[in-house]
From TrEMBL:
Domain annotation Histidine kinase/HSP90-like ATPase: ranges: 26-186
Gene: htpG
Protein name: Chaperone protein HtpG
PROSITE patterns (UniProt xref): HSP90
Keyword list, A-Z: ATP-binding, Chaperone, Cytoplasm, Nucleotide-binding, Stress response
Region of interest called A, as start-end residue ranges on this chain: 1-357
Length: 652
């Protein structure tokens, strides 16, 4: 195959450009990225070799080699991992598939446009861009790789200038060697950071990659004075050089050490290293369990929710080890779905080394460990909520959605997730000064006469504040939960009640207030309804299919109309959420409520006196309904017709 030149995908070009003109000062992290990739590649061959030993080609001494060369000012990172085929080279290195990286670029562009204060430096810190980070220090990168089990090796090369070349080449050992031809600032004694200096490299490996579970080796050239027969240095004699291969990383798994001997930075570095994260974790949970089942777990809550946390390309799950030996990544069977954001590992001598995923699912040990981990995470969260509200609210902002989805999901799975999670939920409320409220806090603040927990859903505070349905509750000083996230209302539906108090949407059904005043208003409203039976019936008839019912309202104060949904069916926001999910079948039943104390009601009565079939009455009905729709943030089906009706009414 002749040498081929390929263009980088447009997004890759942008990324390369950013890397080359990098604003990121912490350039040394490129080494951690390349070493992590090498370690991942070894994990892969190890895993594959469990079912296909031939792939190893009799070489199972996994290792990563660093080869600095001051003369050619290159640094190579070599591994005997899985390697890449030609297609994989193009797929993995020439294109950006990761949604995180795409999101990174988007944010970068947005930041540029808005002249945003978020600097590129911080952004790189949040995302991480793997292989490409090497272009921060290299003017050219050469990848030579041979996939395990294949004969042909390939050479990939790029100067980061928009294109790369691929050609066939020879490589005796399987795996990948990445050679960086260092840019002028990064080699030589005068350079501020000299990445051909063995001692500098040793320091970086200790700092970032000490726990990598395969040996990271490097050749040191040792200069020593020759020794005499008694083993003493011969003075004045010319020094002798000899090579010594050293393993740079301790490989001692952090989790096997005593908790009290581990510093916070060690946990942080370990986490960043193992999970390719760039930020310190929000929380670390390190537990050793002894007893019927023995295991050690080291779990982390990331600082931020990943962009794809709720997408199918997100890989939840923990790493499994048995006596420090890696078994598998992304084991989903340990933690419930609502904890999909938790990263970490479990090491247990009770796991068998080459257990299949299918068998694992049935493992009794795994179930018990999973339950223990879930409990310990829930306890941590309960403690955080009680003792460190600020931190908990940060957690909630990142991962609250997961817990709410968990509550919603329990509607189908029928387990006791609700009981586990209900006290951990936080909601915004109409009482803005008090910040977010747990359901317990809300209940504690409820006046005795209030029997239900009221909630309203909307896209933001302002939208809910301006709902006509809020008027009465505001006047009565009744606190309302503000459901601002799509999933909130679904979670509330699943909860049904909290400590014996039912949830009640302010936009659905009767409010059910039973203080003396409300009882009185209710009676009044019933009387008005009775006296206007004919009018109500005719409005309903005129609106036809559009509404399920028309009612005289006892909840409106200053607004003329509002639309409420039927108590049984979905609400308007749920209808919207269903529609967004391509499920337009679920429609809320619309009930038009009319304020009998509004001036317009009198007008309506007099127009109605001219008969239910007169055109003006029909227009009034239509416009009242449209108003109510608009207040709910919904558009009428026939906006042009409505506009004409308004215009003709205004000109009268
Ligand atoms: N040494 C290697 N051996 C085999 N494959 C590699 C090696 N280095 C990189 N790759 C492949 O190239 C892909 C892209 O690497 P890159 O570092 O850009 O991203 P990543 O490792 O997937 O993610 P990140 O490092 O940001 O977590 C990897 O997923 C892997 O498939």
């Amino acid at each position: 195959m002749p040498r081929e030149t390929h263009e980088f995908q447009a997004e890759t070009k942008q990324l390369l450009d950013l890397m080359i003109h990098s604003i990121y000062t912490n350039r040394e992290i490129f080494l951690r990225e390349l070493v992590s990739n090498a370690s991942d590649a070894i994990d892969k061959i190890h895993f594959e070799s469990l079912t296909n030993k031939d792939l190893l080609e009799n070489d199972d001494s996994y290792e990563i080699f660093l080869i600095p060369d001051a003369d050619t000012h290159t640094l190579s990172i070599s591994d005997n991992g899985i390697g890449m085929t030609r297609d994989e080279l193009i797929e993995n290195i020439g294109t950006i598939a990761k949604s995180g990286t795409k999101a990174f670029l988007q944010r970068m562009m947005d930041a540029k446009k808005d002249d945003d204060a978020i600097s590129g430096k911080e952004l790189i810190g949040q995302f991480g861009v793997g292989f490409y980070s090497a272009f921060m220090v290299a003017e050219k990168i050469t990848v030579i790789t041979r996939k395990a089990g294949e004969k042909q090796a390939f050479k990939w090369e790029s100067a980061g200038d928009g294109s790369y070349t691929i050609e066939e080449c020879d490589k005796e050992k399987r795996g990948t060697t990445i050679t960086l031809t260092l840019s002028a600032d990064f080699y030589g004694d005068k350079a501020e950071e000299n990445f051909t200096d063995t001692y500098k490299l040793e320091g970086l490996i200790k700092k970032y990659s000490d726990y990598v579970r395969y040996p990271i080796k490097m050749n040191f050239v040792i200069e020593e004075a020759p020794k005499d027969d008694e083993g003493k240095d011969i003075e004045g004699a010319e020094k002798i050089k000899r090579d010594e291969i050293r393993t740079l990383n301790s490989m001692q798994p952090l989790w096997s050490k005593n908790k009290s001997d581990i510093k916070a930075e060690e946990y942080n570095e370990f986490y960043k290293n193992l999970f390719h994260e760039w930020e310190e974790p929000m929380e670390v949970l390190h537990n050793k369990a002894e007893g019927t089942i023995e295991y050690t777990s080291l779990l982390f809550f990331p600082a931020h929710a990943p962009f794809n946390l709720y997408h199918t390309d997100y890989q939840p799950g923990l790493q499994l080890y048995s006596r420090h030996v890696f078994i598998m990544d992304n084991c989903k069977d340990l933690l419930p779905e609502y904890l999909r954001f938790v990263k970490g590992l479990v090491d247990s001598p009770d796991f068998s080394l080459n257990i299949s995923r299918e068998l694992l699912q049935q493992s009794r040990e795994l179930k018990i460990i999973g339950r223990n981990l879930e409990n310990s995470i829930l306890k941590t969260l309960q403690r955080m909520l009680k003792n460190n509200r600020e931190k908990y609210e940060k957690f909630w902002a990142e991962f609250g959605k997961s817990l709410k989805i968990g509550v919603y999901g329990s509607m189908y799975s029928g387990n006791d997730t609700i009981n586990k999670l209900k006290d951990l939920l936080l909601f915004a409320t109409s009482n803005e000064d008090k910040g977010l409220a747990s359901l317990k806090e809300y209940i504690e603040r409820m006046p005795e006469s209030q029997k239900k927990i009221y909630y309203a859903a909307g896209k933001d505070r302002k939208a809910i504040d301006s709902l006509p349905q809020m008027e009465l509750l505001r006047e009565k000083n009744i606190e309302v939960l503000y459901l601002l996230d799509n999933v909130d209302e679904f979670a509330i539906e699943a909860l049904r009640e909290y400590e014996g108090k039912q949830f009640h949407s302010i936009s659905r059904g009767d409010l059910g207030l039973d203080d003396v005043e409300s009882q009185q208003t209710k009676k009044e409203t019933e009387d008005i309804a009775k006296n206007n039976e004919g009018l109500i019936k005719d409005i309903k008839e005129s609106l036809g299919e559009k509404v399920a019912d028309v009612k005289i309202s006892n909840r409106l104060k200053s607004s003329a109309v509002c639309l409420v949904a039927d108590e049984q069916g979905p609400s308007f926001t749920m209808e919207q959420a269903f529609a967004d999910a391509n499920n337009p079948m679920f429609k809320a039943k619309r009930i038009l409520e009319i304020n009998p104390h509004h001036e317009l009601f009198g007008r309506l009565q007099s127009v109605h006196e001219q008969g239910k079939d007169n055109a003006q009455f029909k227009d009034y009905c239509e416009l009242l309904y449209t108003q109510a729709l608009l207040i709910e943030g919904m558009l009428p089906e026939n906006p042009a017709e409505i506009a004409n009706k308004i215009a003709s009414l205004m000109s009268k």
